[in-house]
Design a protein that fits this description.
Shape: globular
Strand order of the largest sheet: 1-2-3-5-4
Radius of gyration: 18 Å
Number of helices: 8
Distance between the termini: 47 Å
Structural class: alpha+beta
Order of helices and strands: EEEHEEEHHHEEEEHHHH
Length: 268
């Protein structure tokens, strides 16, 4: 049996025989990251949350031009689809924090690029954020208050990051699974690379409510002010991009969670 589970910017995911999830890229620009994902996922140690482990790997041929893979179906649904209340968000956040603490301590003998998508470059990210916030406003989805511009201006003054660890690289609400009120998996590793751990912390701002952030950081470990600001700007930029995507694609759940993520990221 075949059922389409999800579709994003770069990939489509199909549920096969109610047991496997097969992931197919549909943009050539995503292929280098897809190949890195295939190299890294089998080498990851056991972590507090499940991740896809490729069991079936297909190569390109005349019927399909790119690699693809199938893994055991992970439990849960995208975090944005379940519309969790604040107490659930805190609980999910704690599970994610423990996962990231261990992930960021992993050492792999794999050649990975540094900051594959330039997410630590605040000149790039603040410019993208402004452009995407303008599009979101034009679509009538959300209007940014003055506080956003203050945060973007502060971020442009940040020095380059000082540390680089193994990171997921694209950890927004569509790539975190939730099952029965707890975090249940982390998917879509196409942006895996080495970078400032801050780029994996954006859900601290956009998903976890303010009352849960102290507990999140206690579970994760030390984070400096520059990393917190870098993560906050990424939360704003990616939520703006996802809000635009949700509106254009008619995905009300993605749009709703992205807009609430924008509002949450501005709360102290």
């Amino acid at each position: 049996s075949l059922h389409k589970l999800a579709e994003g910017w770069d990939n489509s995911v199909w549920r096969v025989d109610e047991r496997y999830a097969f992931r197919f890229p549909h943009r050539e620009i995503a292929i280098p990251g897809f190949r890195r994902e295939l190299e890294v996922l089998p080498r990851l140690p056991s972590l507090p949350l499940p991740v896809p482990r490729p069991l079936f790997v297909g190569g390109p041929d005349r019927s399909f031009p790119w690699p693809f893979f199938g893994s055991e179906l992970l439990p849960g649904t995208e975090a944005g689809e379940v519309a969790p209340d604040d107490a659930t968000r805190v609980e999910v956040g704690l599970g994610l924090a423990r996962f990231l603490r261990e992930l960021h301590a992993v050492e792999l003998d794999v050649a990975l690029p540094y900051d594959a998508n330039g997410r630590t470059d605040m000149q790039i990210r603040t410019t993208l954020a402004r452009e995407q916030l303008d599009e979101v406003e034009k679509l009538g989805v959300w209007s940014a208050p003055p506080r956003v511009e203050q945060l973007l201006a502060e971020a442009r003054e940040l020095p380059p990051p000082e540390s680089a660890v193994l990171v997921h690289g694209d950890l927004h609400f569509r790539h975190l699974l939730v099952d029965r009120g707890t975090a249940s998996g982390v998917i879509d590793w196409g942006d895996v690379c080495r970078s400032d751990p801050a780029i994996d912390l954006l859900l601290l701002w956009s998903f976890v409510p303010p009352e849960g952030r102290t507990a999140f950081l206690e579970a994760y470990g030390p984070v400096n002010d520059a990393q917190l600001l870098r993560a906050r700007v990424l939360a704003i930029q990616l939520c703006a991009a996802l809000a635009e995507y949700g509106r254009i694609e008619g995905n009300a759940g993605v749009e709703r969670e992205a807009v609430s993520g924008l509002e949450r990221a501005l709360l102290e």
